[in-house]
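To whoever picks this up:

The parser on our side crashed when reading a file containing two proteins. I've narrowed it down to the boundary between the first structure block and the second sequence. Both blocks are reproduced below exactly, byte for byte. First block:
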Amino acid sequence: MNRILVVVVVLFVAVIGLAWWWQSNLISNSQLSNSSSAETLSTEDMFASLSGEEFDKAYLMDMLALHQGALNMASQASSKTTHPEIIELSDEIIATQTDEIRQMLEWQKQWGHIGSDPHAGHAMEGGGMAEAMAEMTAKLYDLEGSRFDEEFLRQMIAHHKQAIEMSRHAENNAYQKEIQQLAESIIDTRQSEIITMEQLLKSD
């Protein structure tokens, strides 16, 4: 019953999250695709170059896409792994990041970020965060058992490192203190989970 509830929550958040994410990216994606002068930056360089409200807008937009990727990957674990530790970790990821998604969506609406263009002039490498997350998730679709476990852990470690990389700039660059607090929490949580996942990789 609890697992059914988790799946329902994930699907509900996914629908809401993708709807808000699509709306907030509509203008940005159109402008980026038509601009030949947009500078290609790494994620770290891009967030280092932004400050104030522009940082907050970009951080929320990309972190929402990053979180959705984590939910998509974690939701596969219950039916594909035989390791209770991975199932437990996935459930924790779903619970934590579902709450964070809900909060970030509320902030986007509260601060009027929907429809904004925080990435104007800054094209992310790899075609954007959503595309990168889709590629990560796709690598897991046809895997099961030990092959799934290893790829899942490697992809989620890379995912968490991306979240940490983005969040390190919030202390100095974010406008809203709530963004700074969220980023600090994300760094602490993801670092702890990375340690757990690296230990699981070594034990296989």
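<<boundary where parser fails>>
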Amino acid sequence: MKIGVFSASAPAFQQCPNRAMNAIKFLQNKGHEVILGELFYNKDFYRSGSIKDRASEFNNLLKLKCNIYISSIGGFCSNSIVGLIDFKLIKKNMIFAGNSDASPILNAISQKTKARVIYGPSLISHFGEWEKIYSDKTYAKLMESITSKVNVIEEFDYWTDDYINWDKFEKPKRKHKNKTEFEGKVIVKGKLIGGNLNSLATTDLFLKTKFFKNKILFIEDSHKNLEQIEKLFSFLFISGALKKIKAIIFGKYEKYEDFGSKIKPHILIKEIYKANQIKIPNLVYYIDCGHTHPTNSLLLRKKMKIDFNNKEITQYIKMRGVI
């Protein structure tokens, strides 16, 4: 497959050149042709380029008709280019993947086009891992979401959010045993929406309250503390989204700080529901998707089934060819 890489926010290569090249080599060794956007090696202080330049990079990559488009890394300002994307260039057999600050772009594409949109890995963060046990599992789940009729959200045997081995290998990351919790009815079905909440809060997504009706909301975040999470969750309530959704799925929160309170994000969301006298929806916490390793791939705007008895999450995909 031909994989196009866009840098819509942070100057990825300049931050971690060794990891970036390791990620490219990883995908090339899997048999893919990796096409780098024109800003991949660029740095404009805190970003890869100006707003116009970043939008131009994205649109120019679309003209190359790659099979898959993936974000190089996250950042803080990809929402700046959403209004400049030429959505007419996006075909239904294109695939877009990324996470973190790519969320505004991914959600805009999922709303405005029929392309397949995947919340999962970014190039450098996930495929640049020096311990390939993580990148191999992440890659397998990405391919499953692209080539299989059923996308099973896996509970991996272990996970890590150790913030080491970024641009060179230092020592093996600590592995944590996994346990995903399910609180809800027997079976819940609905289309999946969501992504990185901190990034999505900078878009018009939460102004469209009808958009959330009977949906399953996925949220995750990175390097946030308890008070920041409360602010974001209260924003969710104020927007009206929390009143309309069927279920909330939490991804793991990388390097979450609870100030010693032992209050986790799912506990805080329950407090907000109770304080506002709203029935708490079905909850799943904390799946492997987002900033931790390895990561699953979730298909946005596609039907999802949560089986609370058997503790399973699946998506059924109508197969179609890629470019």
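After patching the parser it read the second block fine. The two ends are 9 Å apart (CA to CA). Residues 10 and 46 are 6 Å apart (CA to CA).
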